[in-house]
Amino acid sequence: MTIDKEKSSALLLPLMEDFYTVQGEGFYQGHAAYFIRLGGCDVGCVWCDVKESWDASAHPLCHIDVMRDRAVGSGAKIAVVTGGEPGMYDLSSLTKGLKDAGLRTHIETSGVYPLSGTWDWVCFSPKKFKEPDPSIFSQADELKIVIYNKNDFSWAEGFAEQVASTCKLFLQPEWSKEKEMLPLIIEFVKANPRWQVSLQIHKYMNIP
Ligand code: SF4
Asked: With 50 as the cut, is the pLDDT of residue 4 above it?
């Protein structure tokens, strides 16, 4: 049997984990959502809290229909595709399957690859370790900047200038620096009210 590699690459994706939970961050914080975490990332953030996602070959290939069926079976209305860096894959078939089944499609991406697929919500979270692809700026519904040190505020403002005026702007403390950075974020948001604070509330709720 001949395998159509291009086709199978879109239908089979390395799946690290998938689970039904509550979105803990950003604009959809507090909403129930089915998370599909794909393996594979070459961005290399030093503070990454999912380093085990980096090696795509460590995660079994899963058919997109299986992911869709599990998402639908959970009762979720929103599917969040995350990683790793999910943008490295052709996600057209995955998003078509999810949307045909009536789910909203959300993605969390560092924006380093041009996006494929049809998305109801694009959360763009740029990282200092790899430049984003310029195509992401007009596609982002939400800009989420992880604040690790004081210099990150001016870096965040640079991205806010490049996204659409309708894009929601969030500053989120890096988890290990939260005590140090949160007071600075609060003061920055008070002085620059177009920004909002994002906290990783799933970590407070002790859920994935
Ligand atoms: S882009 Fe995300 S998954 Fe990749 S290294 Fe950075 S934080 Fe980790």
From this structure: no
| Ligand 1 binding pocket includes 112 (Cβ within 6 Å) | no
Distance 55 CA to ligand 1 centre (A): 12
Which amino acid is located at 131 in the chain? E
Q: How far is CA 74 from CA 32, 63, 65, 77, 152, in A?
A: 10, 17, 14, 9, 38
Cβ proximity of 122 and 160 under 8 Å: no
**Distance (Å, whole) CA 104 – CA 123:** 13
Ligand 1 pocket mutation pick from 85, 88, 89, 133 by most atoms within 8 angstroms of CB: 85
**CB distance 123 to ligand 1 below 6 Å:** no
**For position 9, what pLDDT does the model report?**
54
Q: Is 44 a pocket residue for ligand 1 (Cβ < 6 Å)? A: yes
pLDDT of residue 204: 84
E strand spans, the chain = 12-22, 32-38, 61-63, 78-82, 104-109, 121-124, 142-147, 168-173, 195-197
- At 43-101, the pLDDT tens digits run 999 999 899 999 999 999 999 999 999 999 999 999 999 999 999 999 999 999 999 99
Q: Separation of 103 CA from ligand 1 center, angstroms?
A: 25
For residue 35, give both structure tokens.
């998370």
Ligand 1 centroid from CA 2, angstroms = 35
